[in-house]
Structure formats: structure tokens, C-alpha cells
Amino acid sequence: MASKTSSLWRSLRTYQIYGANTNVGKTIMSTILCKAFKRQFPSQNVWYLKPVSTGPFDEADDRHISRFSSETKTKCLFQFDEAVSPHIAARSSQPLSDSEVRDEVLAHLTACSKDGEGTILLETAGGVHSPTPSGSSQADLYRPLRLPICLVADHRLGGISASISAFESLHIRGYDLDTVLQFEDKMYQNHDYLQEYFEKKGVPSLSLPPPPPRGQTEEEDQEMMSEYYEKMSKLDKVEEAIFSLAEKHQKRLQNLEGMSTRANNTIWYPFTQHREVSPQSIMTIDSASGDFFQTYNSASKQGALVPTFDGSASWWTQGLGHGNPELSLTAAYAAGRYGHVMFAGTIHEPALQLAESLLRHLNNPRLSKVFYSDNGSTGMEVAVKMALTASFERYKWNVPKEEVGVIGLKGSYHGDTIGAMDASEPSTFNERVHWYKGRGYWFDFPQVKMVKGKWIVEPPQGMESDFGEATEFASLAEIFDIQARLGSSTGRKYSQYIEATLDRLVNKDGKTFGALVMEPVILGAGGMLFADPLFQHLLASTIRTSPLFPSHSHTSPTAWTGLPVIHDEVFTGLYRLGTFTPSTLLQSQPDISVHAKLLTGGLVPLCCTVASQSIFDAFLGNEKRDALLHGHSYTAHPVGCHVAVESLKTMVEMEKEGVWDRAKEDWKSGSRLASVSDQAVQAWSVWSKKFVKTISYLKEVESVITLGSVLAIKLQDENFGYSSTAATGLQKKLLAGSDEFKIHVRVLGNVLYVMAGQKSKPETLRSIEKTLLDALS
């Protein structure tokens, strides 16, 4: 879960002491800083915290601080007697998780912040990557707090390399390095080299004479060290370092305070009516970790940051957690190895690995070629180009190009570029786009929703004669039991309606179509519309076999027939709905599919348009103009490709390891009825079954849908649609927060949706469910 409190306080200056290695003098430097802070700010408190310590109690670092800086308030949270690495020392005691350590650290920092103004130093154990009691790296344990760093460099032989490596490890994890502390060594002179190195990066250094050699007796040693600390804490350059640290703390606060005003003056926001924007309405994000932003809290007199759940999963891209260290390191490796290299007629390992991995996991024998672009909209643009060209090469239409359309679904939206926009019906998104011309026909369709505790498939209003009356189902499993439903009266009605509509459009109205384009199962931007999977399955199969689109005979069973079928999986793909590809849920495989957003775990933009061999063959010719003349400067960007390989690998391993098994069991309980066939695809959600059912009964709620990580609540409103403001009140309540954290969500008219990540913790989701129930009750 997120930290339950701020990690930045107005009254409390907090600094984390990291060492480039073990035994580099972190505790000695901490003692000097504690005494210097008390000297410069005598009326303020000075605290010292050692979260994890190993070794004899009498030799503990916090006792050293108490001995030589008696006015400093010291504390150690977890003390292990054995003088070994924390992950070994902790084996003999109760298992200690990173979140437990982090929560205890935050609790202590919060308590200090309430005890008046002051400074606290938090000293880590060993080097930057020394293991935590759980065995992870402490650089990852403390990263969510993002405390400013004082790095104690290594003054010994080899210390230059160790110090720079430590800095880079911290830097790549988003830490801010406020100063470098180091001892002077006349032989190795690391301090001179490192001072120049860090000066170029805007980081000041403080170098000090080393402590005296140990005395012959304990009394002599203590006396010599006391004199050393007294002398060092009075040095002018130490005083300058203290004021520099204090000034940076103040500047950080001032920067956060002013960012929303500066943004209001300079930024043009997407999907935003700026008459409704003011500096007060702009949320300032200082950092992000896991599922949470750390956002600036201008109203608080104490904690300046507040944890805020990212309820739009950063607009549907986030799945593996903000600041995921594995993805960050993967990106850094590719950036260091390649930067970017042009892709026309070349190949690099990340692009090849990703193409092979994606094809393997999609497990669709129709698909064999991967085309790279940079986002979902452009990927859909490519898909439409592919499909229309393939259709023309087969059918040789004798109509103007602008009269060729696509078949799709009402409420669908495939992106903001003109071509992708033209594949959607007129809507709020495109009615003021002057070049827009909707090209096609969009089927209305029955929708799945939970109403008053019951799963129903409901026809569009006024179309009961075409689709039948609303049908109740005992579970989601029954709805996705497509093979069992094909022979039902509902299935027959769907087929008859689709066939009759296509016949009218082609034979009576003279329409020409070149592709079927649809988002499988859930239409995102159109308002989180949950399409009946049976209808989508039959729409694709009917178009593929219809005599209206007479395909020539083909030797390959994977060649497209009828019209090419495009699945826009930009939003719904890659475990968003609980399966690697939502095509599995439809039991229908596309000829072209488009993948973005979760593809790179939310780190960098990238898109893959994946096509069949028969689509690819339509672009083979004797002239360059016959080719697919589409591309981007950053096509197959190595950083994006390498991150995507790691992202896919992580999610596939999560499924194999059973990370979502508890949620699957929750939705399976009571659902495996005798009427559900073995061919049914299990449908499940990370949102609890009991919660979804409970919330569907509330008077303010018209209906609820959930699948995978998606939860959408449709509120009662006479003026429904994208322009509705019914959900904004609930949106504001969630942003006001609970006792634990705020929840940032976006709305689509009268629909409020909350998006979990693929790594969201169950306890976080249960807390959000409680907050939602409280806000709606």
C-alpha cells in the first residue's frame, strides 16, 4: 500500500544518509551533521533514525550518536544482535517485510514532524544496495519516500568507482542527491576527483579531514572523538553545507507551491475545457510509486505531500507500478546500448525479441507480422491502412476512396489522429474537428451490466424486437460461455439482425466497406461500454462468411475472408481484462490487432500493430508505392521495445505464479453452474464480487461493470452521456480522500471508473471499495 502520510513536511527537514559502501563513515558524518544542525538552529529539534541495525547493542550507531551528540534524539526501529547483513540477521526472527519497515519509518517521521520544527537524519545500513531484512535492495525499500539524499562517498582505493556507481543507482530510481560527503585522503585524493565530478552535475560536496586514529583506551578514544566532532561541526564549510541543505528544502516546497500557477500559464491540457481550469484545480505530482502519486497538499500546515491512488492507471497505461525499478533499469540498459537507431531495413535485438514474444503469447495462428509505431492512435491508423489496402487489392472497388468505410460499434473510439477518428461515429470527441468525416457504419449492440445484484445482457433501448428482451445470467461465466450461447434464440436473433443490416447497407444503400474495427469486450473512451461478447463474436464470424463479401479461395486457413477483422486492444489488451488478449474472451481471432498502453508497463510510449501474412502480402509489389508507406522517426525505439519485452515477461510470469488466483477464486465461487460448459472462458475481476454486488443496489447507481482491473460505475442521470456532470460530485469526494489516502479518478460523463494496476495489492483495493461505498451511501 502507499505510504499513509506525507514524506515531506514544512516544519521538518528530512535527509537520508546513504553510503557508497559499508564502512565509509556514514555514522561519523551523521554525528557531525547532527551537531552542526543543532548549532545553527539551536531552538529546533534534531533527530536521528536508524531503521535497521545489526551487531552488538553497545556498538549500535544510534548509541554512538547519543554519546557524541547528546542533544540529538535518537532511535533504532529494528535491532538485530548478529553482526551480519540484515537479510541474514532477520532469518532468526519474525519475517519483516519492506512495507512494515517503511510504515514504521513513516510513523516515526510523522511523530517528529508534530513535535516542533527541526531536522531528522535517517541513516541506512551498509551500501546503497545492502539487503533489507526481506532480502530486497534498500534503495528500492526507501524509494517511495523519495527523501533527499546525502551520499557519503568512499575515500578508499576504488572508492571513486563505488561512489559514482552508488550515485547512478540512486539517480536511476528517482532520488534527489542534495550533497556528497567525503573524507579527505592525501594518498588517493578521491575527494578532489569526486568534487569536480559532482560539481558538473550541480551537486555540492563537503570534504572533511578523517577522524583521528583510535586511542589506546576507551576514555582516550572518546575524548579524541569528542574534540574531533566539536571542531568539525564548527567549520565554516560545514555551516555552509547546513544552510545549503536547509535552503534546498525550502526551495522544494516553494517549487511545489508555484507549479500549478506556472502550469496554468503555460500548459494546454488534453481533453480539458480550460474555462474550468484554475491553479487550484491542477493537481501537482511530486513523484509516483506503485499505484500512488505523491501530490502536493497546499491546505496542510504540516505534511506537504499526500498519497493519492492513481485511479485512471495513468490513463490506462500503468500496470506494473510507477517507478518500477526493473523497468527503469531495462530502459537505462537499452538507452546506454543503443540510444535510438533508425529502423527501416535494420534490426536490433529488442525489436526482434518483442515481435517474437508478442506473437508467441498472442497465440493466434492468423498473425505473423509486427509493425511498430509510437502510440495506440497511430497504431490504429496503420491497422486501418493495412485492412483497406488488403480489401481493395482483393475486391478492386470501383468507388472513390473517400466512400469506403469501416464497420464498427456505436460508442467506439480509436484515437485522436484523423484516420483513426474517421473510423468512429460522430461524437463529442470529433464534432469540432473540421476535417473529420465518419466513414462507415456503427452497429448498436446489447450491453452487459450488473443491476441490483444481477448480471444482465440488455438490448439498446427500443431495439428489443431485434435483439430480444433483457436476459438475466447467474454469473459472468455464463455470459462468456459463447459456444453454449451460439445455438440460443438470442444467438439466432443476433445473427439475423447482423445479416439483415449488412444486406441493407450493401445491396440497398450501396455502401462499400473495407474492414471490421472493434474494441473487444469493453469500449473504453465511449463510456466503459461492456459489449455482449456473443454479439461481437457473431459480428466477426458473419462478416467473414457473408456472401456479401465473396472471398476468393485460399490455400491458407489463416488468410482473411469477408473483410479483415481489426481488434483495437490498445486499452483492453495485455491482462487489462484478465487475459493476455481479450480475443480469448470473444473466442474470435483477428486478422490485425493493435497493442499499446500496458505493452511497456506504463513507462514509455510504444505500439505494435500485428497482422496476418495475407494482409502483409497485399503490400508486395514491383514499385515502392505498393509498400506500406508509413513510419515514425522513433519506429521500434530500442528503449520502448526492451521495456516491453520485460513488461510482457513480468505479466506472463505473474499469471503462471498465480498472483491473481485469489481474485479468480472469488469470482468462481458459486459461478460454476451445470449450465456452464467446459469451453467457457473464466471471467474474473480484482474488484471483489461482494463489493460489486453491494454497490449495484445503491440508489445512486444505475449499473456496474467490472472485468480484470476495470471497474466502472454508471450513475443515475437524466442527462446521460459524455457531457453529463453526474459523476463529478463522486469524483470530488474521492479526491478529498479517506483516512489512508486520496483517490484520483477521471469520469466519462455519468460513468466513474477506477482502474487498478496488474500489481495492485488486494488490501489497497479493499480500502478503495470501502471509500466508494461510504461516498455513495
From TrEMBL:
Q: Name one Pfam family in it.
A: Aminotran_3
Organism's domain of life?
Eukaryota
Q: Does the keyword Aminoacyl-tRNA synthetase apply?
A: no
Annotated localization: Mitochondrion
Where would you say this protein principally sits, based on its record? mitochondrion
Picking any one GO biological process from the record gives:
biotin biosynthetic process
Q: Quick one: a GO cellular component term?
A: mitochondrion
Do the record's keywords include Transferase? Answer: yes
Region of interest (Disordered), residue spans: 202-221
GO molecular-function annotation terms?
Answer: adenosylmethionine-8-amino-7-oxononanoate transaminase activity; ATP binding; dethiobiotin synthase activity; magnesium ion binding; pyridoxal phosphate binding
Q: Which UniProt keywords apply?
A: Aminotransferase, Transferase
Q: What is this protein called?
A: Adenosylmethionine-8-amino-7-oxononanoate transaminase
Lineage of source species: Eukaryota, Fungi, Dikarya, Ascomycota, Pezizomycotina
